Amino acid sequence: MKTVKFDGVLIELVTGDIIEQGDCDAIVNAANAELRIGGGVAGAIHRVGDPELTELTRPLAPIKPGEAVITAAPNLDNKYIIHCLGPVYGRDKPEKELLKNCYANALRIAEEEGIESIAFPSISTGAFGYPMKEAANIAFQTVKEMAPSLNVVSFVRFVLWSPADFNLHWDVLKEF
Ligand code: ADP
Asked: Where are the alpha helices (DSSP H) in 69-131?
């Protein structure tokens, strides 16, 4: 585990599973446009939350790349799930801006909903093919830029799926 502070916001990196972050108010889903079960993160979250979760997401779908929506978190210890649709690398453009919007919109919603602690996966870096180092840079840059304006959110965890992903993220974060 590694931590840094951006203004008053504690940033933590861990290796782990997004569905095992019960100490955070909210987790973020690397969703698909239809807000349905999928592979990777969306698979893990919906396997725990369905069928209730899909009942909650259905009226909110579809969403566009960069957008985020919030639901309750059935069968999880978190209060909320914020569902973000990342860009498909090489298809949804400008991908950098769309990925940035995911993090910014998730943090904006968290502020509005009184969420103090939030756990993100590495959005777009699985099935959507975004190179992880670039994606990590965008993620950290966005949190850093928003940190001074965050009054409620005080803890942001990045949950990385493998030790290699964790090490890559730490290599990027320590340069900030
Ligand atoms: P996307 O479609 O946005 O690329 P994925 O869910 O396919 O989303 O992958 C996003 C990242 O999450 C990848 O780096 C993947 O290895 C990782 N990942 C997959 N399953 C989990 C999980 N259960 N918890 C945390 N991260 C995960």
From this structure: 95-112
Span from the CA of 9 to the centroid of ligand 1 (angstroms): 24
Atom of ligand 1 nearest to the CA of 159: 25
Ligand 1 proximity of 131 Cβ (cutoff 6 Å) = no
- Strand-strand pairing, 80-84 and 9-15: unpaired
Contact (CB, 8 A) for 153 and 116: yes
Backbone angles phi, psi at 72, to 5 degrees: -65, 175
User: Which CATH number is 2-174 given?
Assistant: 3.40.220.10
Q: What is the DSSP string of 44-55?
A: HHHHHHTTHHHH
Query: 154, 162, 155, 98: which is closest to 124 by C-alpha?
Result: 98
Beta strand residue intervals within 104-154, DSSP E:
117-120
Model confidence, pTM: 0.98
Any ligand 1 atom below 6 A from CB of 66: no
7-42 pLDDT, tens per residue? Answer: 999 999 999 999 999 999 999 999 999 999 999 999
